[in-house]
Amino acid sequence: MNREPLLQLSCTICGNTKLYDKNSSWVCNKCKNKYSFVEKGIHDCSKNIFGSDTYHWHNDIATNQNKSSPKSVGFKFSFHQKCLIDVFIDATKDIDKGLFLDVGCGNGSFCEKLIEKNSYLTPFYALDFSLNQLRKVDKSKIYTFKADAENMPFASNQFSLIICSEVIQNLENIDLIFQEISRVLKKGGIAIVSSLNANSIIRKFIMKIDPNNKNKNYLLRDKGEPNIFLRSPSELKLKANNNGLVFTKTYWLFSPINYSLLRNDWINPFYSSLAQNFACVFRKK
Question: What distance lies between CA 80 and its chain's CA centroid?
């Protein structure tokens, strides 16, 4: 019988490591920082007080929306969420067994769909800064951490697969999250990162009508929605390359027709302007 790989935790204060135990809290032997259960099935690995618009937004929608609704993780339409999930399923179909991590997991819907299609992708480890989102995650298959994606509570060089869906558009600076993804990904491991497309005609129009502003009185975006930062594959490739990650391919997502185009290289600007989202796949050197 094959045993599950063992996960090593890392203190977010001093870097001291310890073997993960899903049933117990942890006090760092070196700096005495405590990592407790915030409640059953959720390890609290962040002492930060999250007060950003993004934090409150995701916490609130998790409280006010049923998990089955795409709006519970920020999608406006179910076909948009389904297209993105289908891309992640395709991108993970040939992943080797190992440790798997969802960075910014929300309510766990992406992990759960991947596990349904590829049963060996379990257990999945997942982190999010929203406690209300983590409460909706299926704890029988997914081990959860309330943690900061820019300071992950995991030792280096462990995960075979890391997924990060629609997270980086909420961060003005994405250097730290790419550093962390590369740090905890093992050599040869795969990282899949998706985002809103900066080249999209539709996205540009929405941002023109409803730019980031303090009052958040939007016409096309929901009132109170946090700042968003459109990205391009070229930007992600640069950040990834600076952190030892090699680009392998890009999925371009076209909504509302639920269609994605897989390319390993350059794409015609016309087609990229029609794609609302994209997902890049990277491998660690």
Answer: 16
Question: Cα separation of 134 and 59, whole Å?
Answer: 10
Question: Which run of H or E residues covers position 64?
Answer: helix 53-64
The pTM (predicted TM-score) of the whole model is: 0.95
What torsion, rounded to 10 degrees, do the Cα atoms 72, 7, 146, 128 define?
-30
Indicate if the pLDDT at residue 50 is higher than 70: no
Whether 187 and 284 have beta carbons less than 8 Å apart is answered as yes
Quickly count: other Cβ atoms within 10 Å of residue 138's Cβ. 16
Give the H or E element holding residue 178.
helix 175-184
pLDDT in tens, 127-156: 999 999 999 999 988 999 999 999 999 999
Residue 194 has pLDDT above 70, yes or no: yes
Instruction: Give residue 47's pLDDT.
Output: 64
Q: How far is CA 119 from the centre of its chain?
A: 20
70 neighbors 80 (Cβ within 8 angstroms): yes
Task: Give the chain's count of helices (H) and strands (E).
Answer: 8, 14
Q: 23: buried, middle or exposed (CB in 10 Å: 19+, 13-18, 0-12)?
A: exposed
Q: Which two tokens stand for residue 86?
A: 């289908």
- Distance separating alpha carbons of residues 163 and 118, to the nearest angstrom: 15
Predicted confidence (pLDDT) at residue 3 exceeds the cutoff of 70: no
